[in-house]
Amino acid sequence: xxxxxxxxxxxxxxxxxxxxxxxxxxxxxxxxxxxxxxxxxxxxxxxxxxxxxxxxxxxxxxxxxxxxxxxxxxxxxxxxxxxxxxxxxxxxxxxxxxxxxxxxxxxxxxxxxxxxxxxxxxxxxxxxxxxxxxxxxxxxxxxxxxxxxxxxxxxxxxxxxxxxxxxxxxxxxxxxxxxxxxxxxxxxxxxxxxxxxxxxxxxxxxxxxxxxxxxxxxxxxxxxxxxxxxxxxxxxxxxxxxxxxxxxxxxxxxxxxxxxxxxxxxxxxxxxxxxxxxxxxxxxxxxxxxxxxxxxxxxxxxxxxxxxxxxxxxxxxxxxxxxxxxxxxxxxxxxxxxxxxxxxxxxxxxxxxxxxxxxxxxxxxxxxxxxxxxxxxxxxxxxxxxxxxxxxxxxxxxxxxxxxxxxxxxxxxxxxxxxxxxxxxxxxxxxxxxxxxxxxxxxxxxxxxxxxxxxxxxxxxxxxxx
Length: 466
Known about the structure:
mainly alpha; Helix Hairpins; Serum Albumin, Chain A, Domain 1; two-stranded parallel sheet
């Protein structure tokens, strides 16, 4: 494009004529170094270059012919949108946002189910108070409240249904005996209907929670398989949710991961100069519960270290596998055994070498399966396109036949009119054969032969007359 006069003067003053063709101006020094290394073109990055680029951006609509300020602003807006889309674009199977939402929903469902179950216990407890002591599980209590209804209607025939819900014959017998000698008040049918409908809502919520937990488990195995193999799906999802994303968790040091979730206790300890917390969310892991009281701090520190390694492997590996998580879990188990029995654990270098070998085999197998899937997908797509093309050809041929049918009839009539006076002595069978539809080329040849015969006859008649 044509440069503005001020920019041309600026270029002439700062860049010699000999080097003007090879010197590039870039705003970033790292980019200039990369261009120089790859292409061998020297690059300048400094205050002058930044001013030149700023001036070019400011007067870009004046420098380029046919570009207005409005169209330049639209182009900038479109470029900004496309850049944002490119930055946001990711693999849909490795989305950690869904994990954050599902673990938050899971925690909320736990609170809601607990609250609603307590409401059912209080409500149905007026009628059958002894059931609360026999059954402790909330979901089971709601199922029993829905199944029993009026306790006076409970008989020996209902024992099989009670056993199916409680999964214990002794408890089912105890419920049946308690219903016969209960101290609860009588209840009206409309109250029972309300209690049963509310119990069914609580049961459906608990079933949905179970399905959500399965979904979270499958999602964690796709997004962070090593972390979930090391510390469990729920604790790993809570760590990702608290950090904000898997990338943020991978950037944290082990000391931050150790006390993640105990920020309030940490700042209180720093303010009062007390003892800082030893663990945060990772306390819910089984390893810390199994360790002795004196070893809880040490095992939490070791576990946080392994969690950071697992999260970084999950975040930055192309094909996520649970091999590293399993090996890291074995290391934590060995460290626990070392604290209890004194048996020395394996070195980290040896364990990681074994994990690398196994992971390479797993990755090769996964890629092989992906290639097979892609090939099958391409074959299916090819067959679909071929089928569509064949269908289109059939439609076109049908349309052509429909269009040519009236033309054929007209040609037949003309041929019959031409042949009728010239060939009066022909049999009826031959006429019937001519009525059958003939191919296009044959019809043309027959018409041409008829015309030639007519011409020859006319020549003969003229010669006889002469």
